[in-house]
């Protein structure tokens, strides 16, 4: 499956090269401060894990990068150029694809339509150009099979797939359409162990293909399996920002939980 | 979930694991199937009980009746697939005709100019509906209920103000009448059968709508916007533009039927058209459109309109008391909704394999 | 559909909107003089400057040209006698009762009301009587107006009108009539058809949706195809008569058409001999007399009708008198 990913990944990506650089980025909604002083660099070929409890500011951070809400403090650079996204489309055009936990796909639509949604293949131009349906079905089927996502029928509504499969289709779609940065919003939150494993494998595959991955989660174990760099948010600010070499799973877990009582819990859980 | 193999697949080994769904499931997953079965059953039923229905002429009368509802229902169906409602669709028909008739009559202007102006005006109403819905996030049910009342009142008030009466003057002597009558309200003979031109238009609009929904990216977007607007937006679908476009489509086809009514009857009563918005919605729902959006198709909506037209007239052909028609319509609607629910469950149920 | 594209289409639409607004403004500016003189008749007379305020309350459903004529008649009477006329309407009986009560509360000098639903309005009429405000009834409620407490009644007897029409059809050789009811649940319309049936026993009723002309046409077309023995169609309103003409045309029916009430197009159709005759209840007269009678009652203590209903119809309009009536129809007074 790594073959497939590298096939579509931008050949211009060099591991370690910064793709998104955030400097002192903050966001206020009226009088409410959701995010403050965030410094974050997303590098090609690395997984940047953003951890935090509910309400820590994770989703605000995603929204800024995904173009749903522009930031109003600090600067964000993509490929060295300063940007402020006004719509998801702008973000997509910069090669930033976001896969949301619960709204990744349109469940009543067929798998292949979901795969190509927003980037349909058409013959000709203009609003009435016909879709190349046969091509789209074939490509979606091939791509998914190459990545090991096997659906019974490419024509079935995507809602009939399992949660893990849906996430994988969404990730495969993002990669196929040449995403350089992949933002994964809690991709494993609603999944069982086995399905989480599948999703984590794709995350690693995307990283190895040279993409910059932002992995949002509140599960330090999942983060530690794939992450190169870890940021923990608390009340809209970064409380930890370390490379993998400088931090262990224990510290991550403790920081996430915010104290010793959770150390106990983790002991209990490890029994 | 058991299909999600954890090893990178090599194609031949996987082939046995990949099956297509059984034909019965795939057939039932199509929105129009329930309506088609119902249409055939009702058709045969009335062929048996209503001797007067057994003639080509009667069949084309039914098609005409269906087309006057069906044309607007095409757009209402698309709008509902896109996840929105339009309760003003019935009065827009009358508004369109009134604007055309009064503007031209009072100023003595060629009717074609008035028809174009009326089109622009109708599209503007559709745009306004759509814009308010996407801008405020207030449910379209409420926004268009507001437009419905505004238009209903304005239809009467403005007409009364301009003509001194609540109906428009007869326009059949004015310049441009012939052309517009030919486009919107003419009929022609095939053998002994009179075919109203709206029937042809209806078929064309249904075909166009089916094409757009199934074969173009806009169609893909309409389903996505109705099925899950947030994820559609996240992958770059211009959700707001699609929704506004759908509302404008409704007002466009409303205008079309408004033109038909005006040029067929030459005058319009300002209070007309009220209540038809529900018929459009019923046609769409009976035709398999999901009330919550994201599911349905143009053929289904056309069948829904046909069932409506057939039922309303066949009760007359059968010589029954037409007072019962509405009750019958209600039963049809309830049955359709239940069939839809069943079909949807069947087709989207997780296949465990 | 990139954002720029959307914005451009917005501008286009906005431009069109301005054009539409301009055109509308032009329309009302140019259109007013042609038809503003709906008062008709001899509006020139100076009359009495009585200063009374009368309220007229009806069960009008907005959008029916019939009521324009009632109002035109009432306005003419008001104008002639220097009366301030307050018109209000609501098809819902409870709301109509409230409107009457409003008139009582605002201490008008007299009330003219329709009594389509006498039982629902009896309370409001009584409170008017208690307040010493005279009430006259018109248009509907011929059987109950005295019981409810109205002093006089001006209107048509629907059953009588229907019966007369039925007899006239029978006399002209009609065998089977189709009576077209355009609104469900209306006592007055049902009474008309019942009257027609009394005059011509082979009469069948059909219910249509009067708010949707195309559906009226196809329903009548279907009925004519189903029953070829129908040789007379009776419609209960002028717009429906015009729909019936379309249906008869489409079904190549040889049936003859009779209608209740009049409008310009129906009057023209009578002149063109497409409609045999119209049973007119003369709504203009109803509105006019109701206000005039209130005036006379206040001014001079008069009571019109000798304790009985004053009938404004049925008045027949056919090819023999249409030439005289057509100009009045065009003037919205007949």
TrEMBL record, chain A:
<dbReference type="InterPro" id="IPR050107">
    <property type="entry name" value="ABC_carbohydrate_import_ATPase"/>
</dbReference>
<dbReference type="InterPro" id="IPR027417">
    <property type="entry name" value="P-loop_NTPase"/>
</dbReference>
<dbReference type="InterPro" id="IPR003593">
    <property type="entry name" value="AAA+_ATPase"/>
</dbReference>
<dbReference type="GO" id="GO:0016887">
    <property type="term" value="F:ATP hydrolysis activity"/>
</dbReference>
<feature type="domain" description="ABC transporter">
    <location>
        <begin position="20"/>
        <end position="260"/>
    </location>
</feature>
<dbReference type="InterPro" id="IPR017871">
    <property type="entry name" value="ABC_transporter-like_CS"/>
</dbReference>
<protein>
    <submittedName>
        <fullName>ABC transporter ATP-binding protein</fullName>
    </submittedName>
</protein>
<dbReference type="InterPro" id="IPR003439">
    <property type="entry name" value="ABC_transporter-like_ATP-bd"/>
</dbReference>
<keyword id="KW-0067">ATP-binding</keyword>
<dbReference type="Pfam" id="PF00005">
    <property type="entry name" value="ABC_tran"/>
</dbReference>
<dbReference type="GO" id="GO:0005524">
    <property type="term" value="F:ATP binding"/>
</dbReference>
<keyword id="KW-0547">Nucleotide-binding</keyword>
From TrEMBL, chain B:
<feature type="transmembrane region" description="Helical">
    <location>
        <begin position="298"/>
        <end position="318"/>
    </location>
</feature>
<feature type="transmembrane region" description="Helical">
    <location>
        <begin position="33"/>
        <end position="53"/>
    </location>
</feature>
<keyword id="KW-0472">Membrane</keyword>
<feature type="transmembrane region" description="Helical">
    <location>
        <begin position="324"/>
        <end position="343"/>
    </location>
</feature>
<dbReference type="GO" id="GO:0022857">
    <property type="term" value="F:transmembrane transporter activity"/>
</dbReference>
<dbReference type="InterPro" id="IPR001851">
    <property type="entry name" value="ABC_transp_permease"/>
</dbReference>
<dbReference type="Pfam" id="PF02653">
    <property type="entry name" value="BPD_transp_2"/>
</dbReference>
<keyword id="KW-1133">Transmembrane helix</keyword>
<feature type="transmembrane region" description="Helical">
    <location>
        <begin position="60"/>
        <end position="81"/>
    </location>
</feature>
<feature type="transmembrane region" description="Helical">
    <location>
        <begin position="197"/>
        <end position="213"/>
    </location>
</feature>
<keyword id="KW-0997">Cell inner membrane</keyword>
<keyword id="KW-0813">Transport</keyword>
<dbReference type="GO" id="GO:0005886">
    <property type="term" value="C:plasma membrane"/>
</dbReference>
<feature type="transmembrane region" description="Helical">
    <location>
        <begin position="241"/>
        <end position="262"/>
    </location>
</feature>
<protein>
    <recommendedName>
        <fullName>Xylose transport system permease protein XylH</fullName>
    </recommendedName>
</protein>
UniProtKB/TrEMBL annotation, chain C:
<dbReference type="Pfam" id="PF13407">
    <property type="entry name" value="Peripla_BP_4"/>
</dbReference>
<comment type="similarity">
    <text>Belongs to the bacterial solute-binding protein 2 family.</text>
</comment>
<dbReference type="GO" id="GO:0030246">
    <property type="term" value="F:carbohydrate binding"/>
</dbReference>
<feature type="domain" description="Periplasmic binding protein">
    <location>
        <begin position="56"/>
        <end position="295"/>
    </location>
</feature>
<dbReference type="InterPro" id="IPR050555">
    <property type="entry name" value="Bact_Solute-Bind_Prot2"/>
</dbReference>
<dbReference type="InterPro" id="IPR006311">
    <property type="entry name" value="TAT_signal"/>
</dbReference>
<keyword id="KW-0732">Signal</keyword>
<protein>
    <submittedName>
        <fullName>Sugar ABC transporter substrate-binding protein</fullName>
    </submittedName>
</protein>
<feature type="signal peptide">
    <location>
        <begin position="1"/>
        <end position="25"/>
    </location>
</feature>
<dbReference type="InterPro" id="IPR028082">
    <property type="entry name" value="Peripla_BP_I"/>
</dbReference>
<dbReference type="InterPro" id="IPR025997">
    <property type="entry name" value="SBP_2_dom"/>
</dbReference>
<dbReference type="GO" id="GO:0030288">
    <property type="term" value="C:outer membrane-bounded periplasmic space"/>
</dbReference>
